[in-house]
Amino acid sequence: MTQSREEFEARLRRIGAERYHDKHPFHDLLHSGGCTPTQVRAWVINRYAYQSAIPMKDAAFMSRVEDPALRRAWRSRIEDHDGTDTNEGGIERWLRLADAVGLDRDYVASKRGILPATTFAVEAYVRFVRDKTLLEAVAASLTELFAPKIHAARIEGLLANYAFADDSALSYFRNRLSEAPKDVAFGLKWVLDHADTAEKQDAAAEALIFKTNVLWAQLDAISAAYVAPGRIPPGGWQPDTHLIAVAA
């Protein structure tokens, strides 16, 4: 049975309440100041794989869109991450975070130390957006509904607990506080407009669940490798390597 617009939106929001990665124990550890420098650096390195793939995911989506209005609306997502002449972009801001935690940014950008499970999760997301219906691809982006809350908590927790944290280091998260609501306002309306049958609503909901799994799997990988007892798989970043000197 097809749900009303209000019922379906509530269903999507329940998915976030139950499955978004703000519930993952690693985020509790990070935001409370419980992470070691090694664990923070491992998170920064592995999360870069996801950050750098976002504009590729969005470009893959746009290559399939025939509606110029939808392409115009979606284009800003690529610019938000890749940057423009007047906006350095989210990828550059993430590399400034890498600088702040003492990592060699060229090493981070090379993605050589990414964990295998992180790579699989990120590549699965890009393939999903490239291969699934446009409705499913847009619905998968709706984790942005829940992002501002975690970004605000992250800013507060990192500033309170880590010496590296300052406005420059955390600029990625501050910018996403304004970028994510803009993106999700469009994406949510588009999904609600186009999920007009029970089958389409089910597909959109499953797409959002898939995306929460992508985010959760990345934190599982970091926890398994770098949180005690920890077992770093072959190819994963090794602690105390590829570091730079950071001013105290």
UniProtKB/TrEMBL annotation:
It is an enzyme of class 1 (oxidoreductase). Residues 10-220 form the Thiaminase-2/PQQC domain. Coiled coil: none annotated. Its EC number is 1.3.3.11. InterPro entries: Haem_Oase-like_multi-hlx, PqqC, PqqC-like, Thiaminase-2/PQQC. Keywords: Oxidoreductase, PQQ biosynthesis. It catalyses: 6-(2-amino-2-carboxyethyl)-7,8-dioxo-1,2,3,4,7,8-hexahydroquinoline-2,4-dicarboxylate + 3 O2 = pyrroloquinoline quinone + 2 H2O2 + 2 H2O + H(+). Pathway: Cofactor biosynthesis; pyrroloquinoline quinone biosynthesis. One of its GO terms (biological process) is pyrroloquinoline quinone biosynthetic process. Ring cyclization and eight-electron oxidation of 3a-(2-amino-2-carboxyethyl)-4,5-dioxo-4,5,6,7,8,9-hexahydroquinoline-7,9-dicarboxylic-acid to PQQ. Belongs to the PqqC family. This is Pyrroloquinoline-quinone synthase. It comes from Sulfitobacter albidus.
